[in-house]
């Protein structure tokens, strides 16, 4: 690309730097339109592990300590890629058109770190600010293209409505997207999020924290039909999700075994992991099918940490095939988890709509809900 073309794009807010500190990952992404040039993530998992969960004060301290380094890392990565693709010799603050930052939902003290840093940089380098809802990032993550610009899908007018299924450790929701920026939550968790249930059951099985990936591995070798566990919301007509009943069923099952003096061997653990995952996915399948039937979307987008499970993706694909509605997941595993490239992409689309934040008014909203503008 020639520098004159890049200059023209600069005016169009093409190069966006995104920051996400909503939970326990410090992340900075740099995108060129929907192409990821950098998606730097500094995970804090190792330090929270010994507490068995995310400790907000510790998350804040670590975000504060690491954010400058992660920003530097993102610039290095983006520069390397931009040079390799002949986009630009180097990417510095001068080339960045706007700064996108997550304002919620998430941990208040953690969100504050990213927002304060975004404000500081916006002032220092005179860049406009874009406030992004973390869930909008997950929702749009299947649109993320690789650095070369290969995208799985580019949304066209006739592709709407799009149905989003967002599943992670903190969220389980169905979002109807009638256009960019126009979202409606049509179903959500009533208690535990699906990823939270995975982690809690994993802990009961002694897999430590976060144990969901271990549980998923164990489930691969188990018999999903071995133990009949409940699918809590199967017979409810609405689109809401519940996972605490399934988690409790596993708890009582383990208690019963313990009372009988049964030692948990590998076979029981594998079968129980597989049976749990079977019910957990069944709930997602039932709600996805119901939403497809009621709203008849043209496309399904699925995002969030739980799509990292191949079985979850296969289970959702099965429903999408049944309804002949294509489903898209993010193109790589890094985009399943919390990351700032997805925040930068959501920011890119907001910038095209001229939706910038007021530096003096921008504040965190730990309980933010994806914009409802239909
Ligand atoms: Zn998330």
Could you give a short description of this structure?
The chain is 43% helix and 17% strand. The chain has 374 residues and is of the alpha/beta class.
Task: Kindly describe this structure.
By secondary structure, the protein is of the alpha/beta class. The protein has helices at 3-11, 45-49, 56-84, 108-125, 134-140, 194-204, 212-220, 244-259, 266-295, 310-322, 341-352, and strands spanning 15-20, 25-32, 35-43, 98-104, 129-133, 162-167, 172-179, 182-188, 299-303, 327-328. The strands form two sheets. A five-stranded mixed beta sheet has the order 3-2-1-4-5, sandwiched between helices. A five-stranded mixed beta sheet has the order 8-7-6-9-10, with helices on both faces. It starts with a helix and ends in a 22-residue tail after the last helix. Bound molecules: zinc ion. Zinc ion binds at residues 134, 138, 168, 304, 338.
Second CATH tier, the architecture of the largest domain: 2-Layer Sandwich
**CATH topology (fold) name of the largest domain:** Nucleotidyltransferase, domain 5
Shape: globular
Q: What small molecules are bound in this structure?
A: zinc ion
Please tell me how large the radius of gyration is: 21 Å
* Total domains: 2
Unreliable residue runs: 1-10
Largest sheet: 5 strands, mixed
Instruction: State the separation between the terminal residues, measured CA to CA.
Output: 38 Å
CATH class placement of the largest domain: Alpha Beta
Query: With helices defined by DSSP (H or I, 4 residues minimum), what is the helix count?
Result: 11
Q: Within the largest sheet, what's the order of strands?
A: 3-2-1-4-5
Helix content: 40-55%
Structural class: alpha/beta
């Amino acid at each position: 690309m020639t520098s004159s073309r890049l200059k023209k794009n600069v005016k169009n807010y093409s190069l966006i730097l995104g920051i996400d500190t909503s939970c326990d990952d410090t992340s900075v992404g740099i995108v060129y339109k929907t192409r990821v040039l950098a998606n730097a993530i500094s995970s804090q998992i190792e330090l929270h592990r010994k507490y068995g969960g995310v400790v907000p004060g510790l998350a804040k301290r670590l975000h504060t300590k690491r954010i400058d380094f992660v920003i530097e890392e993102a610039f290095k990565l983006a520069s390397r890629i931009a040079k390799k693709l002949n986009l630009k010799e180097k990417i510095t603050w001068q080339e960045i058109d706007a700064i996108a930052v997550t304002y919620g939902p998430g941990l208040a003290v953690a969100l504050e770190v990213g927002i304060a840093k975004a404000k500081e940089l916006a002032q220092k380098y005179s860049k406009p600010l874009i406030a992004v809802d973390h869930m909008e990032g997950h929702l749009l993550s299947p649109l993320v293209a690789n650095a070369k610009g290969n995208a799985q899908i580019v949304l066209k007018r006739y592709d709407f409505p799009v149905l989003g299924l967002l599943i992670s450790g903190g969220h389980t929701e169905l979002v109807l997207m009638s256009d960019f920026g126009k979202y409606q939550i049509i179903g959500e968790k009533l208690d535990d999020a699906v990823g939270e249930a995975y982690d809690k059951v994993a802990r009961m099985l002694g897999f430590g924290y976060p144990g969901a990936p271990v549980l998923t591995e164990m489930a691969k070798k188990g018999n999903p039909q071995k133990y009949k566990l409940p699918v809590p919301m199967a017979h409810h007509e609405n689109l809401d999700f519940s996972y605490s009943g399934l988690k409790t069923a596993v708890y009582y099952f383990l208690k019963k075994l313990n009372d009988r003096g049964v030692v948990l061997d590998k076979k029981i653990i594998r079968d129980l992991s597989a049976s749990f995952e079977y019910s957990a996915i069944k709930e997602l399948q039932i709600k996805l099918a119901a939403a497809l039937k009621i709203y008849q979307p043209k496309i399904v987008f699925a995002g969030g940490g739980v799509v990292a499970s191949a079985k979850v993706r296969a289970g959702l694909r099965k429903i999408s095939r049944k309804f002949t509605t294509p489903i898209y997941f993010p193109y790589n595993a890094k985009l399943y988890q919390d990351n700032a490239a997805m925040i930068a992409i959501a920011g890119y689309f907001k910038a095209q709509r001229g939706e910038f934040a007021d530096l003096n008014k921008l504040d965190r909203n730990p309980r933010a809900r994806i914009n409802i503008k239909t």
